[in-house]
Amino acid sequence: MYFFAIDLTQTTIDGLLFGSTYALVAIGFTLIWGLLRILNLAHGVTVMVGMFAGMLSASVAGLPFYVGIVIAMAAGGFVGFLIDRICYRPLRNAHELVPMIATLGFWILIEEVFIKIYSHFWFRDYVAFPNPFDGMGIDIGQIRLRGDYIVTLAVAALLVIALYILIYRTRLGLAMRMIAEDHDIGNLMGVPVGKVLTAAFLLSAAYGGAAGYLLGMTANLAGPYAGSQAVVKGLFSMILGGAGSIPGAIVGGLSLGVLELLSSFLFSFSYRDAIAMLALFVVLIVRPQGIAGKRLPDRI
Amino acid sequence: MSYWFTIASLTGINVLLAYSVYASFMSGQVSIGQVAFFGVGAYVGASLTVLGGFDLASAVMAGGFAGAAASLFVGVPTLRLKGYHFTIATVAFAEAMRVVLHNLKYGRPRSSGNVGDQWLGPDGATGFRHISYLNDHSISTGQYAVIVWLIVAVVVVAFFLVERSRIARILRTIEEDEVVARSIGVPVARYKVAAFACGGFIAGISGALYAHLLTFISGNDFIIHLSTIALAYVVIGGGQTMWGPLIGAIIFTVLPETLRPIREFRIELFGLLIILVMLFRPAGMISAAMVRRWGVALTSKAGAKPPRKAP
To answer: Using CA atoms, how far apart are residues B123 and A249, in angstroms rounded to an integer?
Structure first.
């Protein structure tokens, strides 16, 4: 019983720490959802590109961890810029499903091209992602905090604080909040809506890139399908916490991390995803606005 | 030739999948979870012919009813809510379903078969093998294509009739504005659930047909990707009329297969085509205005006057 309690605590803590990567992916989703009400299905591409940019910077160029994260964010941000210019900007007046399907096309196209390029260079499903914090950790009694998880949480926390400063203390953030309320009124008030949305895409994708780096580093692996997996996890974190809200994305990401690890610890590894998804389904029925969502939509 | 018959069957299955999205799309409800009902239909249908010894027709029908039941399970609690919560719940359900299907194991041992291949029925991650109904009853791929397209024809005719009925107007009103629909006495939630259940039924049928065509299915066939592509058929073809899903699914299944020289790049081509169609025809390839124009052209050729617009 004692050891069970220790293991349970350990699993929960690992889940919280690891969940911070999900939270970063979910923040990228939630920014675009909050501003535009479209699901950016191409978000996984930014995660994948960030992961590979980070992998190359760490293993080929031998750059240190903090430079790698910046490179990953820049690479992800570039993809975000492309998504804005190709999938959103030309379609901003169409039905909101149209840009979403365009991002689906972008996702399929880029992922396939990337897989072709990948299999040209590497003949394995995964390549090693150097982890400078491998084997490090802090022991508190019987509980061990893995070094790379602590770094992940620290980076995620830093990025979240930076995001809050950006949103609540700068003019760009003010403009974003305005647009989230109403595009037309924002336009009338002289907010350059197009530019602000480009910035939002860049920001969301940069967070995706950082998440890609951290996901690759903690797993020690980089693979071409990581983007698709991240899409599913990030989407569910966002929904679990409450779509369109940044605290919601954080809560959702952390809870998904805990939920996944706990369900594989308590039940079985193979049903891990099913349990997490069923939990999400229950949350949607009982509390449709998500754990930290603001208001209930009108009932008909 | 049998290759082309297989493509024809696959096209028909994709058309059905597109219509299953379209059924609830008409009422403005966007589902990205049709793959769950497709998967349920596939597993139920295959189980009945392989383990239960049923014939194909009843297995396909049972697959449809199983799909409808699963869609009621999702639809009843979530369709009372407005907007995107429904969409998101469908995604969650589909992903949970995929994992459940991926881990299912039931059935009985096979009398013959190599080592490690002696199980009849779904066997966890190895999937559900030996769905050999077509082979056992010597149904050729050509005959199967005819069966699939007969079912497609029934569904298309059904949608054609619904589109001209009061039901379609009610669904379109719900799509336009739920509050207005409610205020003129439309039981909004009931219509939305019924439309979604019809979609689940069609997806289930389509799944059962798919299982018998491929003879091998596994939980990982039913990833979210497939539902987003089913939605893409509708949006690309055009969600305003019933012709959109038909055209979208046919073109986007056949075109990548026919372009043999660039076969290696057909998935890239698929992605690129999606982007291009969305950029140049945001209303989809077939818009409502287009159908109206053609309808007028056809009737005026036959000697009738074009319908006058009300002042």
So the answer is: 37
